[in-house]
Amino acid sequence: MQVSGLDFVIVDCEHGYFDFSQVAALAAVGNGIEFPVIVRVPSVSRDCIQKYLDAGVDGILVPMLETKEQAEHLVEYGKYAPDGKRGISTMRPHSNYNPGRLKDYTARANQRTMLFAQIETKKGVQNISQITEVKGIDGIFIGPNDLACDLGTMGDFSTQEMEACIDAVIEASQNAGISSGIITSKIDFIEQCRNKGMIMFSCDSELGLLKKGILEMKERVGI
């Protein structure tokens, strides 16, 4: 993925089947080649976020985030004091087993760790200005499949209401000085969002890309 020119990878532990040991192995490889690994966790959960960060991942993405309070909990669990209340255990992969002076390490870790909110409901869009104002949130992703479902237009990203939601997220993110992006396999939709000002794109899954590659190969060789 890095050789192909991608800037990061999201390991899906919301819908995916990866266990902690597999994520730790992916994080170790990512750290070794300086390729950011972000984990989409199932929810804002201290024990889950703690384990993934201690394994050395670069960032956390929380799906279905809807409120300022949830965003504050994400920062609380994901950042060390004084920015948050992340538990301290330094002889772990996240410190390369060599943290040095504790205050210096925690400051570096806070700067390195990326925290993202995924907006997928009308409620999340309604609260987007409050969410983006939470100090420590680095960016906002939209999950269009679930958002369209919550809007009552499952599978349809072309509605005016969807466009208004996207515009609201982009505007709030820009006002807060953070980035916005979208998670989708629809290339035309990605281009529309880029033209609106989004800069982060999760383009399909590893299984989707593998399947498309196989189908393209079959077509090329005529089988």
UniProtKB/TrEMBL annotation:
Keywords: Lyase, Metal-binding. GO terms for molecular function: aldehyde-lyase activity; metal ion binding. Belongs to the HpcH/HpaI aldolase family. It holds the Pfam family HpcH_HpaI. PANTHER family: 2-KETO-3-DEOXY-L-RHAMNONATE ALDOLASE, PHOSPHOENOLPYRUVATE CARBOXYLASE FAMILY PROTEIN. It comes from the Bacteria. InterPro entries: Aldolase/citrate-lyase_domain (IPR005000), HpcH-HpaI_aldolase (IPR050251), Pyrv/PenolPyrv_kinase-like_dom (IPR015813), Pyrv_kinase-like_dom_sf (IPR040442). Residues 3-206 form the HpcH/HpaI aldolase/citrate lyase domain. This is HpcH/HpaI aldolase/citrate lyase domain-containing protein. It comes from [Clostridium] citroniae WAL-17108. One of its GO terms (cellular component) is cytoplasm.
